[in-house]
């Protein structure tokens, strides 16, 4: 059996050197590269792309949940600010002021301002004094010049997250409370 020998020209020394038969590729295109210098296989590249896709999907789901949580919290804080503003106006002007909540329009109205809409995909519940109900889907919370109010609470709900804005009847104090699960 005849063995073929392979030689490689060395540019630095100008000499030919004999190559080991194990270093020759099966395609006979030249010497095989060590494992550390070879590229990635298609299978390895596909595996990396799949792992990146899974990581991006998990991150986007997590991000969208935190974004929804931020929206409900921001809407609740805006409502607290509107109630405190209404109370302040009642005290400063020495007259009764009301914050109206319309559940059909998903909005609330501060005296002298345009209605403010709640974000989409948020449920709102209103509990107020019976004489402050406009109809079964609208009502108001009234503040008096001494700072007191008719009291009540407004719940802002999105999924399992619920924030409740409480208005004390005696002092008119407005506070925000997070309820973990409803």
From TrEMBL:
It is a single-pass membrane protein. The chain crosses the membrane at residues 42-63. It is found in: Cell inner membrane. One of its GO terms (biological process) is protein secretion by the type II secretion system. Residues 75-169 form the General secretion pathway GspH domain. One of its GO terms (cellular component) is type II protein secretion system complex. Keywords: Cell inner membrane, Cell membrane, Membrane, Methylation, Transmembrane, Transmembrane helix. InterPro entries: N_methyl_site, Pilin-like, T2SS_GspH. It comes from the Bacteria. Pfam families: GspH (PF12019), N_methyl (PF07963). Belongs to the GSP H family. This is Type II secretion system protein H. It comes from Tahibacter aquaticus. The lineage of its organism: Bacteria, Pseudomonadati, Pseudomonadota, Gammaproteobacteria, Lysobacterales.
